[in-house]
Write a structure and sequence with these properties.
One of its GO terms (cellular component) is membrane. By secondary structure, the protein is mainly α. The protein has helices at 9-51, 59-73, 81-89, 99-113, 120-132, 134-137, 142-161, 164-173, 185-201, 219-253, 259-275, 285-291, 300-313, 321-339, 343-359, 362-373, 378-391, 424-435, and strands spanning 176-177, 402-403, 419-420. A three-stranded mixed sheet has the order 1-2-3, with no helix packed on it.
């Protein structure tokens, strides 16, 4: 018999395929079930808050309580999504299981009393923490553990938004700018698809979005989407910089961690009262839906932007993505008449493109647009997402994301491989010193230390 049948690469692949089919499905059941419970709790919390608007004045107390719990019990997991990304790049120890209940409880409390936060961070952290508990149980090696954590990210993202393909690619694309690990593509795809089905099996129904009046791909439609994509990318960059900048400022000015969300809660409550900005707190799903149906006020995106930056920057738990959906959809709605494009179409592209720029995930967000709004929007959504990705610069909402490859061919970053976004400013400073004929012996390395972790 020919040696091909004895040592065929395809034959050797079968055991690995079976192994990850089982493991990824197990991760998906855990993450999908956790997301279902989380979404149900979030719906109940939102309904209660909307029926008791006075509860916003308890937001400072709620923030203090969440901050105190994390200060006492959650210091090891306070880095959230960044901790999971760091563990994939530089595996050290299993993510504590306590991350799942802590972020679940913290996010529900944040929504219950009116913080402007999302839900993706919670789903990703629950998925990653639950998946990592299988590391010792299955006696997984270092490389397999990396794939396991990527499956947890994919499963959490896919199940919480009902976008299995986008979730699978998000688990690959979020790790590094300009580089993806295709060896984990099959496990992440299985995890995303199964987790979405598990969440649906629990009776969860995701919000439908209808994009009407998709225009054909043509000279003007492409140019209009490119122009809008530039704006979307700049807004995504500004959002990332503002949230991280405020967070750093608050940490310098307020030494006691529980007092940070307390102060943020006070600021949000008084701003809400003074500006009558109740629509800008929580997830903001009703306004996102309206952005697809009718013209919106041109300042709505900025209102959500401000309340979300303050909420996240002062330490409230949740995610950034759904607020970015709100910002993008309302901003696209406002740009539509200026660009002579249907506001529903521009709301849909803005929905995914601002997120693409802020998270540096153009492929996942293009797939998300097609899954949520239909395949017909794909070409224009891709142009908007890629343009936003390019114009958001080397910034991002995930500070542990690595620089795999620079975004611009003419201005490639001569940065060490696996440099974290959080370390990029230090690297540039050191490069500037070296350009000025000063020694640059303190360049950051790929090794992640406790000092560089957020």
């Amino acid at each position: 018999m020919p040696s091909f049948f004895h040592r065929s690469e395809q034959i050797e692949l079968l055991p690995r395929l079976g192994k990850w089919l089982i493991i990824a499905s197990l991760v998906a059941v855990l993450a999908g079930s956790a997301s279902a419970f989380f979404l149900l709790a979030l719906d109940r919390a939102t309904a209660w808050r909307e029926a008791h608007r006075w509860a916003i004045w308890l937001l400072p107390v709620a923030g203090f309580g969440v901050g105190l719990v994390y200060h006492l019990l959650g210091k090891q997991v306070n880095a959230g999504n960044n901790l999971i990304i760091d563990e994939i790049h530089d595996p050290k120890k299993v993510v504590p299981l306590r991350m799942a209940p802590l972020v679940l409880g913290g996010t529900v409390v944040s929504h219950l009393f009116g913080a402007s936060v999302g839900r993706e961070g919670t789903a990703v952290q629950m998925g990653g923490a639950l998946a990592d508990q299988l590391t010792h149980l299955l006696r997984l090696q270092r490389e397999d553990r990396r794939v396991l954590l990527m499956c947890g990210i994919a499963a959490g993202f896919a199940s919480v938004f009902g976008t299995p393909l986008a979730g699978a690619v998000f688990g690959l694309e979020i790790l590094a700018i300009g580089r993806m690990r295709y060896d984990a593509l099959f496990p992440c795809m299985v995890a995303g698809i199964v987790a979405d089905q598990v969440c649906l099996a629990w009776g969860i129904h995701h919000t439908p979005y209808a994009v009407a009046g998709i225009v054909p791909v043509g000279a003007w439609s492409v140019l209009a989407v490119v122009i809008a994509g530039i704006v979307f990318g700049l807004v995504g960059m500004l959002f990332s910089s503002a949230a991280h900048g405020l967070g750093a400022l608050v940490k310098r000015r307020i030494a006691q961690a529980p007092l940070r969300p307390f102060a943020g809660g006070l600021a949000i409550a008084f701003a809400l009262w003074a500006l009558d900005g109740y629509r800008y707190i929580g997830l903001g799903i009703p306004d996102i839906v309206r952005a697809f149906q009718q013209p919106m006020a041109p300042w709505d995106f900025f209102g959500k932007f401000g309340f979300t930056v303050v909420s996240l920057g002062t330490g409230f738990k949740g995610g950034e993505v759904t607020p970015l959906f709100y910002i993008g959809a309302t901003l696209g709605n406002a740009l539509a008449p200026l660009l002579h494009m249907p506001f529903s179409l521009m709301a849909g592209i803005g929905f995914v493109a601002v997120f693409s720029g802020a998270a540096n995930t153009p492929i996942a967000t293009t797939l998300m647009a097609m899954e949520l709004f239909g395949a017909e929007i794909g070409p224009l959504a891709a142009i908007g997402c890629v343009t936003a990705y390019l114009f958001s610069g080397h910034t991002g909402i995930y500070r542990a994301q690595r620089i795999g490859h620079g975004k611009h061919h003419k201005r490639r970053l001569a940065a060490p491989e696996h440099l974290r976004l959080a370390e990029l400013a230090l690297f540039r400073s050191a490069e500037a010193e070296r350009a000025g004929a000063r020694p640059a012996c303190d360049l950051p390395t790929a090794t992640t230390t406790e000092e560089t972790r957020p």
